[in-house]
């Protein structure tokens, strides 16, 4: 089978295309013919060997992929040949609260192979069926970006009709957050560095749009839009210093879903304001299988279609990663296999 793996060194250029034998099937495992994968910011952290995401040589990157079950081990009970399934980002987290044990395995990270491969072998517990309403390319966007957005806004955030939600950016997590926020009947404000992307956000039904590159003090317009009150929920994909602006922009007793680290891993933040405004800073890790099942149901019921920006062929995997790295995408970048 063909696959892409980490070569001698880090960076997109060091990735290598290889031929491998699929690993032998265990009793509770299934062989999946991967049809499409989608890229996340985290895949760049892995490929570039950053911090705790640094993988060894030979690791297959990319967490999110979907395909068909083509063979199953003798003890597999929950799946049949032909099922369309996605790998789970955190396969140990089936339900309930997050624990250290549930965080231990993550697909396509430092310690476990990912999905950028023609075939993968996974335990039946490590996959979930995807909505029949979605193409392979659309379904491949769900395991990380969509589930994180769902977890932050719906499962933990419990946003409701009439709330105001501030969304930073127009990447994968951001546009799923936008779609789930609109489904929940909230009023949405989107920040982007691009007027063209903000135009597209307007076509999705978002009235309030701010260019954070030209309006560096975006807190002021956010407060104007909310009559000085601030927003009920911030989807924080930037992190680090940026959280200080979110603290200013959020309402008293509002929530900030701390999801991203585009701005860095650490910062000095205004703890006094967190206290006096009674702000809830809510850290979000992707999500559980149980949450994924609820999200799939919402996607089917509401005929929601993930926003796929561009689809690349397998032999263009490096170009696809470069395209993501350049930050010109709107929604998800996908590779078909
Ligand atoms: N905690 C978790 O479990 C989890 C799960 C998924 C992702 N993440 C993290 O969340 C972040 C986003 O991931 P992703 O895959 O959605 O990335 P992505 O598709 O690459 O999107 C990143 C977006 O961030 C926006 N952005 C960059 N700087 C900004 C700023 N200063 N203010 C506002 N927006 C800004 C950009 O929007 P414009 O192009 O419109 O300017 C860009 O499109 C990453 O840090 C990732 O590691 C965490």
From TrEMBL:
The UniProt entry, under InterPro entries, shows: ADH-like_C, ADH-like_N, ER, GroES-like_sf, NAD(P)-bd_dom_sf, Zinc_ADH-like
Keyword check for Ribonucleoprotein, yes or no: no
Give all residue intervals belonging to the Enoyl reductase (ER) domain.
11-335
Q: Which residues cross the membrane?
A: none
Where in the sequence is the signal peptide annotated? none
Which UniProt key words apply to this protein?
Oxidoreductase
GO molecular function per UniProt: alcohol dehydrogenase (NAD+) activity
Q: Does the keyword Oxidoreductase apply?
A: yes
Any Pfam family the entry gives = ADH_zinc_N
Indicate what this protein is called per its UniProt record. Zinc-binding alcohol dehydrogenase
């Amino acid at each position: 089978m063909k696959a892409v793996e980490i070569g001698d060194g880090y960076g997109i250029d060091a990735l290598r295309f290889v031929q491998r034998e699929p690993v032998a099937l265990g009793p509770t495992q299934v062989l999946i013919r991967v049809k499409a994968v989608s890229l996340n910011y985290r895949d760049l952290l892995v490929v570039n060997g950053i911090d705790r995401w640094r993988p060894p040589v030979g690791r297959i990157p990319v967490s999110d992929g979907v395909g068909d079950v083509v063979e199953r081990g003798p003890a597999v009970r929950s799946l049949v040949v032909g099922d369309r399934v996605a790998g789970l980002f955190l396969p140990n987290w089936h339900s309930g609260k997050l624990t250290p044990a549930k965080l231990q395995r993550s697909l396509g990270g430092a310690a476990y192979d990912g999905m950028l491969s023609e075939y993968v072998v996974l335990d039946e517990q490590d996959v979930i069926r995807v909505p029949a309403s979605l193409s392979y390319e659309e379904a491949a966007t769900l395991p990380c970006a969509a589930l994180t957005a769902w977890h932050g806004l719906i499962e933990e955030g419990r946003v409701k009709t009439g709330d105001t939600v501030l969304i930073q950016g127009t990447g994968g997590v951001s546009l799923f957050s936008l779609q789930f926020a609109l489904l929940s009947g909230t009023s949405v404000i989107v920040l982007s560095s691009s007027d063209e992307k903000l135009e597209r956000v307007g076509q999705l039904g978002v009235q309030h749009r701010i260019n954070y590159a030209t309006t560096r003090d975006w807190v002021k317009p956010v407060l104007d839009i909310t009559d000085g009150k601030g927003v009920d929920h911030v989807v924080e994909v930037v992190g680090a210093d940026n959280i200080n602006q979110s603290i200013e922009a959020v309402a008293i007793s509002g929530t900030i879903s701390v999801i991203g680290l585009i701005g860095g891993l650490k910062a000095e933040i205004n703890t006094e304001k967190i206290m006096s405004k009674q702000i809830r800073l809510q850290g979000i890790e992707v999500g559980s299988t149980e949450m994924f099942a609820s999200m799939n149901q919402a996607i089917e019921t509401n005929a929601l279609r993930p926003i796929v920006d561009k689809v690349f062929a397998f032999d263009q995997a490096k170009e696809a990663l470069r395209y993501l790295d350049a930050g010109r995408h709107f929604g998800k970048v996908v590779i078909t296999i």
